[in-house]
Amino acid sequence: MVDSCYEPTRNLCDRTLRRFGIETSYYAPGDDIAAHLKPNTKAVFCEAPGSLTFEMQDIPALASTAHAHNYGSGGTSVLIDNTWATPLFFRPLEHGVDLSIQAATKYIGGHADVMLGYVAANARHAARLHQVHGDLGLFASGDDCFLGLRGLRTLSVRLARHQETGLTLARWLQGRPEVARILHPALESDPGHVLWKRDFSGACGLFGVILKPASEAAVAAFVDGLQHFGIGYSWGGFESLIVPAHIKRTAKLFAAEGPVLRIHAGLEDAGDLIADLEQGLARMKDAP
Ligand SMILES: *Cc1c(COP(=O)(O)O)cnc(C)c1O
After folding, report:
1. What is the CATH number of the domain that holds 110?
2. Has residue 223 been placed in a domain?
3. 103 lines ligand 1 (CB under 6 A)
4. Are 280 and 225 in contact (CB under 8 A)?
5. Prior bond of 49 cis (ω within 30°)
6. Measured by CB atoms within 10 angstroms of the end CB, which terminus of the chain is less buried, N or C?
7. Cβ distance 45 to 23 under 8 Å?
8. 208 has which bridge partners?
9. Which atom of ligand 1 is nearest to the CA of 84?
10. Among 12, 84, 105, which residue has the most ligand 1 atoms within 8 Å of its CB, making it the best to mutate?
11. What is the pTM of this model?
């Protein structure tokens, strides 16, 4: 599993799956996967860009290495958490992935009022996926599916706006003296930009900001006083969100110059959002 994975997915592996005798080891997002494949590796779980840090991965290269390992004997499959890109901006099965997982709670629902998810599988894995789905008794209610289907109708127009506003905020923040670096693969300056440009057709509104060293009180003064950004985890809805990020790594340390924030650009007016961020950054100066 990639070290930049969504933390609850790590927790599932480290706690629940461990009790079933399933072992999980972690690789850094930039690593060559070949060095990490063991004789008993059944699956590689990736996420690109990764949660909180937005590091890209070369998914087609990873998939071909994993499949060459022992795919023939029913061995190593590749799973991706594709929530950031949605199937509109990245099509995992066309890039060698076997199973693509989507939190439809985020952009597909789009209005922060439903919890849904799905898995898409290639022909090789579809029958098994269907079987497991039945065995585990997983289901989504009719009302929730209605909200998911309704969200799909506006997904493309919403995502275009999330993308545009996200990039506008990211570029504006990049020019600010309080900011050390922006984590957003659609920015030309990002180390993952070349891979993103090759494989993805767009970016959503979620990205990271690394501030220059600042006290906890200064970060709180910035975040707590924002008018248009809620403090929240579950992004992908119409509203802008901000949250301090606590990065958990076990394979390789993620070196951040200062506090890390994750921003979700919602559908509000970009000028209003920038004015709000500008006032927030000004509040940092007065904090102890
Ligand atoms: C939010 C999120 C999930 C889980 O979504 P829920 O439907 O809220 O459980 C999975 N993966 C990523 C990357 C997420 O951001």
Report:
1. 3.40.640.10
2. yes
3. yes
4. yes
5. yes
6. C
7. no
8. 183, 262
9. 13
10. 105
11. 0.96
User: Is any atom of ligand 1 closer than 6 Å to the C-beta of 83?
Assistant: yes
Q: What is the pLDDT of residue 74?
A: 63
Q: Are residues 106 and 55 part of one domain?
A: yes
pLDDT at 72 over 80: no
Task: State mean pLDDT over 125-136.
Answer: 95
Looking at the domain assignment, is residue 150 inside a domain? no
Amino acid at 74: G
| 28 class by beta-carbon count within 10 Å (0-12 exposed, 13-18 middle, 19+ buried) | middle
* Minimum-distance ligand 1 atom for the alpha carbon of 47: 13
With CA atoms as reference, report the closest residue to 210 among 224, 190, 226, 233: 190
Can you give the CATH number for the domain in which 232 is found?
3.90.1150.10
The residue whose C-alpha atom lies closest to atom 10 belonging to ligand 1 is 103
207 pLDDT higher than 70: yes
Q: Which domain holds residue 206?
A: 155-286
Q: What is the structure's pLDDT at 70?
A: 74
The last residue of a domain, from among 136, 169, 197: 136
CB of 51 within 6 A of ligand 1: the answer is yes
What's the gap in Å between 143 CA and the centre of ligand 1? 20
- Measured CA to CA, the distance from residue 41 to residue 25 in angstroms comes to 10
d(CA 281, CA 288): 14
- Alpha-carbon distance 134 to 145, whole Å? 18
| Per-residue pLDDT at 244 | 97
Structure token digits, residue 240 = 């802008």
Q: Which atom of ligand 1 is nearest to the CA of 51?
A: 13
From 77, 102, 136, the end of a domain falls on 136
pLDDT at 288: 80
Q: Work out the end-to-end distance of the chain between its first and last CA atoms, rounded to an integer number of angstroms.
A: 40
Mean pLDDT of 45-58: 97
**What is the predicted pLDDT for the residue at 243?**
98
User: Residue 286: pLDDT band by 50, 70, 90 thresholds?
Assistant: confident
41 lines ligand 1 (CB under 6 A): no
